[in-house]
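@channel sequence for tomorrow's demo:
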Amino acid sequence: MDATTTCGLVTPPTFLNYNKIVTSTNSLVEFNMSSNYTSFKAKSDMNAFTTYLTSFETSSPSLPSDKKSIVTGYLGYPVDSTYSKDYYVSTATTGYTQFRDLSGVVSAIVTAGDLCSSNDIYNSNVFNGSNSGSISLATLYQTLGTAITTTQQTQVQSNIDKLQNKNKTFYSFFVYEYCYYNTMYTALLTEYFKEYSSVSNISLSNIAYLKDSSGTACVSGDTGKTTANQTTRLDAITITLARVNSRLIDMRSLLTAINSYYLTSVQTMQTILNSNIGAGSDADVEAKIMALNSQAKVVQTSQDQSTFRQGIVEYTSEKNRYSNVLLGIYAFLNIAIIAVIFNIKE
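structure tokens (generated this afternoon):
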């Protein structure tokens, strides 16, 4: 599913007037959920990805940190207060260059509480009957399958939902914001080809809001039907396209950085489970099986190996349960599909 198909799931605003794209001072009209959100519109043919959006069919998602935009709140836009170069390019090479450390942006998002942290995914805390709010998602998954009271099951499930919904909300918010800029980019690209094809193109209203690289305002109507004015309009639209595209590129790059963060988190968790002496780890299971094996003669004479075999089954079952927990974490953090969804050429 490409970005166009994904953005078909929501209803972004239309850009039929330049005052919806830039302000009178030529600053880009940035995304803000409170003013740019319309609705989630997919009602049928739902796939795995669109389940991120289903809970927001009647109300808009909002970031827990109360940031109004990923682009302005985390990615640091606008880049240039003069708005003439409000995009990231390299002066040494041709094309786009990512100057900022997006791993630091991911850390800021996690610290603000908009995404689950590595500690949320796995930590050494164990359930003691009343601390479900401080144990990790991995332990919560494991605890839910143990013999606990109905009240404790409710508490554990509630905290699982809380952690899962944290990421669900962020990705839903991400889709709305990305589609906002993607729709704006498409509208500008359409206007560019209209301007390019004819010196007398009837531009969108308020084209004077657009300014070229020298700060000259665009002119439309009868007075704008000159080659010089057409050049100014094309220059201004090109700069605005670069500004919007820079935001789209950064948002897709951010997904890659988030994916790397969680890949490292899961690898760390897997290493702990495979090498640590904690419950469910390979070392833990191996040590207990060896202890049982050393007592095999006693077990054989007392209960005809039944106790030994029961111990093997119990610890093998424990290991399998931890493997299932790990698979659950993989499923929850499988955001690679999101990066593919937005892998489009601008």
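heads up for whoever presents: Residues 3-201+237-276 form one domain.
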